[in-house]
Specification:
With 550 residues, the chain is an alpha/beta fold. Helices cover 35% and strands 16% of the residues. The longest helix is centred in the C-terminal third of the chain and has 29 residues, at 358-386. Strands 1-2-3-9-4 form a five-stranded mixed beta sheet. A five-stranded parallel beta sheet has the order 11-12-15-10-16, sandwiched between helices. It has a four-stranded antiparallel beta sheet with strand order 5-6-7-8. The protein has helices at 55-66, 97-108, 116-130, 196-201, 208-220, 241-252, 266-274, 289-300, 336-339, 358-386, 399-412, 416-433, 436-448, 455-461, 477-493; strands at residues 67-71, 77-81, 87-90, 139-140, 142-145, 148-152, 160-164, 167-171, 178-179, 230-234, 259-260, 278-284, 302-307, 315-320, 323-328, 342-346, 450-453, 496-499, 513-517.
């Protein structure tokens, strides 16, 4: 986004959509007026007296004539066209200002081509100009706040959708500053034409309660300031997990590569996450500890600091909160802390007479996608209207997402929150079953009711399954104590309380673990009437009237 800066780069100040209500209250539905600046034309090499301007100086003059320069909050310089889409262009790179400027230079000064050294010198000057003002927010695909959300359609003309409690509109120019990446693809213009949600449901092999949870997740995916659970499609082979995940991701953040392989290290992950608002990891069987921790941090908001290229002491910062999806067959292989941040949806086996080819599914999805987007934006606007008044009796781990589900239930008269809480309890149990050490601890408490002692004593008392230590079994007391802390939420979900605040009374003052049974109230699960797996869908054009779009 572009914040208000006094005479930023000698241009007219722009409005900050993130500013507090006390300082200004911009209308998120009114696009910013095009930037205008009055500058002299670049110097002609054949005019004037004295020394001929260098190529680098000409390049800087061309750039300042058509762009203003800002630095994002993560320290990256960008150029923004004075008359054009509100899109932040990186100064370097394949789709950056450098290439555009090289072409413009050749068109302006016929017969002259800027050298690489001249372009490098010009970029250095422009980076200095960008750093002369305070950093500004630059968003990817989705931006805004609780009072107004903006979704970048990703089109060349810079159109966007603005959503607030008063409704949604398609605007010709985004009111906030977005950046683009090669991992993004354009979204179709949303329309209200028929029952878009039913059209989406008709493409998916899931029952009504499961589909309602998916709709709640899709709506929450466009609310950028809250954590989002990792949407996980689970099912045996032949349930269409990968295709379902592809369609879901292409609704909220279309990409040429909507499904990704498991990253090999944190550098590969950070590159993917920096360039996409929504990512899907396909066919996950096991998750290494580093990736489990990284995904957990990406749900709540992550930051990665790395050394800048060609420097010894400078750093670059990648900070992001992302919307994540996965497909898997077995949820028991997921780590406990990640399991608490999942929205697990079971897909049902597709009957042979319901199977369709990839080409047929792609064509059907593209035909209904504008109507589905319109229905989701319509529901998002209604959710934003009621969300401030939503209060939960108890706060689950993903409390912000739970409030969104409660708002969806209020608008649609569904039971999505109850289904989500019941599903979360089942996922926690599945994840604990996949952890041999956690299962051994639960069995110990089941036998003795209450156990207390040091972590070393716990390791001595717990027999390793089959007489040998499986992978991941704690090797010493320190690792056992840390493992118990990580397993505490999952153990609590099955009725095992963990207390590590007590100390022994001897001179060693060793930390004690107290494991005890507790009564767990069953989650309130809704019992909606049975619905058909494949709902009837009204043809396009027979739904609600399309609202006026601006």
């Amino acid at each position: 986004m572009n914040t208000a800066v006094n005479a930023v780069n000698s241009h007219t100040p722009t409005v900050d959509p993130h500013a507090s209500a006390q300082s200004r209250t911009p209308d998120p539905h009114t696009p910013s007026s095009p930037r205008k600046a009055s500058r002299s034309a670049p110097a002609d090499p054949g005019s004037g007296e004295g020394k001929k301007p260098s190529a680098a100086a000409r390049l800087v003059g061309l750039a300042r004539e058509g762009y203003e320069f800002v630095t994002s909050t993560d320290g990256r310089p960008y150029a923004v066209a004075l008359d054009g889409p509100n899109i932040a262009l990186p100064l370097r790179g394949r789709a950056g200002l450098r290439q555009r400027l090289a072409r413009q230079y050749a068109d302006t000064f016929e017969g002259d081509v800027a050298s690489q050294s001249a372009l490098a010198d010009a970029m250095a000057v422009l980076e200095g100009i960008a750093e002369s003002d305070d950093p500004v927010p630059v968003d990817l695909r989705v931006g805004g706040g609780p009072n107004g959300i903006v979704v970048d359609l990703g089109t060349a003309d810079g159109r966007a959708v603005t959503v607030s409690a008063g409704g949604w509109h398609t605007v010709a120019r985004s009111p906030i500053l977005f950046r683009r990446s090669g991992a993004m693809a354009p979204m179709p213009t949303p329309v209200l034409d028929g029952d878009g949600l039913a059209k989406l449901h008709a493409l998916l092999n899931m029952d009504a309660p499961t589909f309602h949870q998916l709709v709640g997740w899709l709506v929450a995916a466009w609310i950028p300031h809250i954590p989002h659970p990792v949407l996980t499609f689970k099912g045996e082979q032949g349930t269409g997990k990968s295709k379902t995940a592809q369609m879901v991701v292409n609704l909220i953040d279309p990409s040429p590569a909507s499904k990704r392989s498991q990253p090999r290290d944190i550098k590969a992950w950070s590159a993917q996450a920096f360039n996409s608002w929504a990512l899907c990891l396909d066919n996950i069987s096991t998750i290494p500890p580093w990736l489990s921790d990284t995904l957990c941090k990406a749900v709540t908001g992550d930051g990665i600091v790395d050394r800048a290229l060609y420097t010894d002491d400078d750093v670059v910062v990648l900070s992001f909160r992302r919307v994540l999806a996965m497909t898997t067959i077995d949820a028991g292989a997921l780590a406990g802390d990640l399991a608490e941040r999942l929205l697990m949806l079971d897909l049902q086996l597709i009957a042979e007479d319901r199977r369709r080819t990839e080409e047929e599914l792609d064509a059907a999805f593209e035909a209904v996608r504008p109507a589905v987007l319109g229905a989701l934006f319509d529901l998002l606007a209604a959710v934003l209207a009621v969300l401030p008044g939503i209060r939960l009796e108890s706060m689950p781990r993903m409390a912000d997402f739970a409030r969104v589900l409660a708002a969806v239930d209020q608008v649609q008269e569904w039971h999505t929150l109850d289904s989500y809480l019941a599903t979360s309890a089942n996922v926690a149990g599945d994840a604990l079953e996949g952890d041999p050490f956690g299962t051994a601890v639960a069995n110990l408490v089941e036998e003795c009711g209450t156990w207390h002692g040091t972590a070393a004593q716990l390791l001595e008392q717990l027999p390793a399954p089959g007489g040998f230590r499986p992978p991941g079994w704690p090797k010493d007391a320190t690792r056992a104590s840390g493992r118990i802390k990580r397993l505490a939420p999952l153990l609590r979900s099955i009725g095992v309380a963990v207390d590590d605040t007590q100390r022994s009374q001897d001179r060693h003052r060793s930390r004690l673990l107290v494991l005890s049974r507790i009564d767990v109230a069953p989650p309130a699960a809704s019992t909606p009437p049975p619905d058909p797996l494949w709902p009837d869908v009204a043809p396009l054009g027979q739904g609600r009237t399309t609202p006026e779009q601006h």
